[in-house]
Amino acid sequence: MIGLEAIEQMALADDDPDVIIACAGGGSNFAGLAMPYLGRKIKGQSKARVVAVEPAACPSMTKGRFVYDFGDTGHLTPLVKMHTLGSSFVPPGIHAGGLRYHGMAPLVSHVLDLGLAEATTVQQLDAFAAGIQFARAEGIMPAPEANHAVAAAIGEALQAKQEGKQKTILFNLSGHGHFDMQSYIAYQAGKLENYEYPAEEIAMALAGLPSVG
Ligand SMILES: Cc1ncc(COP(=O)(O)O)c(C=O)c1O
Predict the structure, then answer these.
(1) Which pick of 94, 107, 171, 178 has the fewest CB atoms within 10 Å?
(2) Which residue out of 1, 2, 29, 134 has the highest number of ligand 1 atoms within 8 Å of its CB and is therefore the one to mutate?
(3) Pocket lining: 131 vs ligand 1, CB cutoff 6 Å
(4) Rounded CA gap, 84 and 100, in Å?
(5) Alpha-carbon dihedral sign for residues 64, 55, 123, 114
(6) Where are the alpha helices (DSSP H) in the chain?
């Protein structure tokens, strides 16, 4: 629905996005914005780059494997083919709770696998710095999850500026941060750190993947 609305709103603005960005935890927020545009891309009606953003601390799309896995830690779900860090993956205590899922929606995983969309990571401190910059400019305090999309959008804008190109960047501000002020306080007090999930621990969590014939 978000993507369908965005298409209508971009038409009202007589513009079309060159880049489409959303953060992805389980994938529905990203899919909501991206899927209608991917439909247009498949039909040759859009050339937009579509970017899913995840925390460096929980890199299911960029460092996980595209295999069958359980969607939950209790192993009650059917096996689904998705990008996963393994269901025994223990997410670090970063302040973007909604982006700490070990897997990714199968449809989002599929479009990444087809090369219709790409994935990137943002570090925690960069995400909060972007959120504060956005709040100061727009008067809206984004949720820590949404900060990942804000950081990626700012990155795209700065790159366009450097290249002297004009780019229309559409991103999803997936939620406000009114319930997350404690994390902003921790950030401002210098208590937050960057965290990159270590390759050995990813390998250990992936070693526990279910075996599928
Ligand atoms: C504000 C916000 N944005 C994005 C997400 C991630 O959404 P999804 O799991 O649909 O990828 C969440 C999840 O809790 C969230 O709270």
Answers:
(1) 178
(2) 29
(3) no
(4) 11
(5) positive
(6) 2-12, 28-42, 60-63, 106-113, 124-138, 144-163, 181-188, 199-207
- Considering the chain, what percentage of its residues have pLDDT values greater than 70? 100
Residue 118: in which H helix or E strand, if any? Answer: strand 118-122
134-155, pLDDT tens digit by residue?
999 999 999 999 999 999 999 9
Beta strands 19-23 and 65-70 are unpaired
Distance 100 CA to ligand 1 centre (A): 10
The domain ranges of the chain are: 2-205
Q: Which of 64, 56, 102 is nearest to 197 (CA)?
A: 56
Sequence-distant (6+) residues with CB within 8 A of 188 are: none
Q: Poorest-confidence range of 66-70, 80-84, 109-113, 202-206? A: 202-206
Q: What pTM does this model have?
A: 0.95
For domain 2-205, say whether CATH 3.30.70.1450 is its number.
no
